Amino acid sequence: MNRAVTARQQGDDYQAYLFWMTVGDMLQPTAKISEVGYEVDLYTSLDDIAIRFSQPRIHGNSIQIDANFIQVKYSVDYGHPLTWRGLMDPGLINATQYSFLQRLQNAVRTMQDNAKSHLFTLYSPWAIPPDDPLAELINTTDGSINFDKLFKGKSELSKMGEVRYAWREHLGLANDQELIPILERLQIKLCVDDMQTIVSHLNARLSAGGLHPWCDASRVNVYPPLIRKLYAEGRSWFDASTIRDAAKHEGLLVNPTPAHSLGTQLGIRSFNRFAENMEDETDSMLCLTPHFTNRQIKSGDLWAGAILPEVQTFLNTHVKSNGQYVIHIQALSGVVGLLPGQVDAHRRDGRSGSLDLAQSSPHLQ
What is the number of structural domains in the chain? Predict the structure, then answer.
């Protein structure tokens, strides 16, 4: 088969996997997602996946958003790094005339004309070179632009001054300040996981949402062709009821309501990838990400001095006797290793009626 055709098919499957991962989130009982979109015809080049929230979410820079529109990029290799200049190159989004930044600018204008508050996400399989200014501009907590760093240096000859000048000229803006209402709507998510790892994450999300995971022994994954078929039938937006009906028809529905829907849902995370929405999917959440940099703990003293006390305080605060609790974990192995002992302590002391660990991440590092 022609390599270009194979790459296109893999890219379509990659988009479908990310769609179904988001669907898995929507189907969880604590989710605040009302609909998930596929190939939504609203914003050019920002239409691969869309998410409507039943409650507004707070994005970086304290912006409330009610929907997120996502451009999904796929590559068969890691040979094309993402750079600040690349955002001005139409080739980044397989276009010939308009760049991603220009598409973002047009999307923000349309959003403002319609009095909406949306987020626009570039989902990239490429890493950012550490010496590229873009590496300093992306917040690792939520993928937003760090404006404090962007506006460092007054001269156009400074590192960030060069970035501001080039982006401003590219977008036809009068001054640097006009970059803010455009870039504050931008999220850049880096996902350099290979396809097998993506499918592992997908299976975890499907199971959590009450759908059958894909059997690794099967050559064909039924989920990508299913969403393409549903889209071909004229649908772009899907709520939980529509998805469950379609899954039931195809024999993919395990539980109409996920089994863990009973009880209080608690969450603990130490990284954001595939866990960035945990606060909206649980009743209460402990975020340990400030203690880590790129999945490495900032200091060994933090294990005993901060992480363990925070875990103990979190459990003592939220776990009461005679209750039912499920703890969802997206955390590194060191954090996961702390939890069984703490859970057992609560059980011995009679401080929990039913307390179970639900390891949400299939690959902990």
Answer: 2
